[in-house]
Design a protein that fits this description.
The chain is an all-alpha fold. The protein is built from 19 helices and no strands.
């Protein structure tokens, strides 16, 4: 499959994940805060992303099937149907149920999508591929969390959800036109095999801590903006558009950077930048202008995009080709569990210590995580985790940079 067509397929699938997720993560905290929900309650809504944390339990099932395409088509169509039904029911409990179900469909879709990326993207293109994939996901979030949030007063509930449903349907077209090559399904318990790897503990520790501090801090950004009296359309512009565009740029830059300076140094540099960006939120006060606020938010999202692209490029490297769905999913789920736990604890922290101390604590955690990532970085050879049989045959064994 040509790289351009492969990137187009992956980009469409990641966009489909980001579109509804962007709306839920941007609109839901604002709506809840406007309705008077406590910071602790808003923080706990991150538990609606539980399917993303538990998706590793079904990943071996996808490794034991011969077709990724059938899974993707069913999940894409199911997500579109859920959003279509949600457009006719406007109630907070139903919204929460919809968020959980859409997360379950999207998380399962992500298993198959990540497996395709691990199996088909050459190692030399993985940095660029991850930059484009994270970028496509963030474009989906820009549309869902920025454009649709700003247009919510005009489109209302039904219009927003109908547009998201149509958007997911459109991203299904590349999947329907994809001619999937035959693959041999895995024949053994790949989940157990992952946890018995010699590097499993340091690897999972690295993945758990790397995004924890950032998620811990950023989860309280939107409630902070509401408490500062910033209107919904302005929040949509600042976070959903300016922030996500900066994140898109960061993702592309991160994908390029990791190919220039290597995986380990990229994780350290991006991790330190991420910590500095979270620390910048302590300067957000009632006297902060919208332009200054936009600059701080853009910096944090840029740093987050850099770090995410670097981390997920490494996750591809650390996945076995035969068990691509399981290995990539276990690692990604570890990141999700960490960020979900951090987000759930964030409301308690901000309520107990205040916003300033909360952001200082989050920045400190992010800085420690960057150092741990450098120390714990696993040394894996291409012979142990080949990118593809073709690359293994043509590339001498070498340590991951």
């Amino acid at each position: 499959m040509k790289p351009t067509r492969l990137f187009g397929l992956l980009g469409a699938l990641y966009f489909a994940q980001g579109l509804p997720f962007g709306f839920f993560t941007q609109a839901l905290p604002v709506m809840l805060r406007q309705a008077g929900v406590s910071l602790e309650g808003i923080g706990l809504t991150s538990l609606l992303a539980l399917p993303w944390a538990l998706k590793f339990l079904i990943a071996p099932r996808l490794d034991r099937t011969s077709s990724r395409r059938r899974w993707l088509l069913a999940l894409q169509l199911g997500t579109a149907a859920l959003l279509f039904v949600a457009s006719f029911v406007e109630s907070l409990p139903f919204v929460l149920v919809t968020v959980m179900l859409v997360n379950a469909f999207a998380a399962t879709q992500d298993i198959a999508t990540d497996a395709i990326a691990v199996e088909l993207v050459p190692r030399s293109l993985r940095g660029l591929a991850n930059g484009l994939q994270v970028g496509a996901y963030r474009i989906g979030m820009i549309v869902g969390g920025g454009a649709l949030l700003m247009a919510f007063d005009l489109l209302q509930w039904r219009g927003v959800f109908l547009l998201m449903s149509v958007g997911v349907l459109l991203t299904t077209l590349p999947v329907s036109r994809w001619s999937e090559a035959p693959r041999l399904p895995a024949t053994r318990a790949s989940l157990r095999a992952f946890f018995t790897r010699s590097d499993a503990l340091p690897l999972l520790t690295l993945l758990f801590v790397f995004k924890f501090g950032e998620a811990f801090g950023v989860a309280m950004l939107k409630p902070r903006l509401v408490d500062l009296g910033i209107a919904l359309p302005q929040i949509g512009l600042l976070v959903g558009t300016i922030g996500f565009v900066a994140g898109l740029v960061g993702a592309v830059l991160g994908g390029v950077l990791i190919g220039v300076i290597g995986r380990r140094r990229a994780l350290l540099g991006c991790g330190v930048t991420q910590a500095a960006a979270v620390f910048a939120y302590i300067f957000v006060t009632p006297s902060t202008s919208l332009s200054q606020l936009g600059a701080v938010i853009a910096f944090e999202h840029l740093a987050g995009g850099l770090a995410t692209a670097a981390l997920f490029t490494c996750i591809m490297d650390w996945s076995r080709h035969e068990h691509s769905a399981t290995d990539a999913t276990v690692q990604a789920s570890t990141v999700v569990i960490a960020t979900g736990l951090a987000s759930a604890l964030s409301g308690w922290s901000a309520s107990t210590f205040g916003y300033t101390t909360h952001f200082e604590l989050a920045a400190g955690l992010a800085l420690v995580a960057a150092a741990l990532a450098f120390v714990l970085f696993p040394r894996i050879t291409q012979q142990e985790f080949p990118c593809s049989p073709d690359e293994l045959a043509s590339t001498p064994a070498a340590s991951t940079p």
